[in-house]
Amino acid sequence: MQVVGIQVSAERAGKAGLTVEFVGAEGEVVTVTCPQDAEGSLNRLNAVPRAKDILSAALGADEKLQDTPDPRASAAALRPIPNARTAHDRKTMEEQLDEGLEDTFPASDPVSIASSAIAKGNSRR
């Protein structure tokens, strides 16, 4: 792939990180999402080298999988981990929902509206 363009865009105004797109000469696009670090130091200037590091690590992991003598071992490593929804585990889904609601409290509480008004009669004073 011959890179002819690089586009960097912010995710949630840069708070969640940056997305780097490498555009190839034949229209291919490779997208890498770089998560923001704890210090918040990821910016448009250092996002491209960080994306290259992530790609290098991914390619290195892929080479290790290809060097595995047993092809079933590499297939097992790539198999997704089932979640509670696909496993139809209702109890775990309820626990995850409760944890999520607790994490977002009090924002998860329903909104209530209170107003005060003075009734106006039909008086002719």
Nearest-integer average pLDDT: 76
Please count the beta strands (DSSP E, at least 2 residues each). Answer: 3
Give the % helix: 25-40%
What ranges have pLDDT less than 50 throughout 5 or more consecutive residues?
none
Number of helices: 3
Portion of residues in beta strands equals: 15-25%
* Oligomer kind: single chain
Lateral strand order in the biggest sheet: 1-2-3
| Rg | 26 Å
Morphology: flat
Largest sheet: 3 strands, antiparallel
Structural class computed from helices and strand pairing: alpha+beta
What does it look like?
This protein has 3 helices and 3 strands, in the order βββααα. With 125 residues, it is an alpha+beta fold. The protein is 34% helix and 19% strand. The mean pLDDT is 76. β1 and β2 (17-24) form a beta hairpin. It has helices spanning 47-66, 71-78, 90-103; strands spanning 3-11, 17-24, 29-35. 4% of the residues are buried. The longest helix has 20 residues, at 47-66. It has a 3-stranded antiparallel sheet with strand order 1-2-3, with helices on one face.
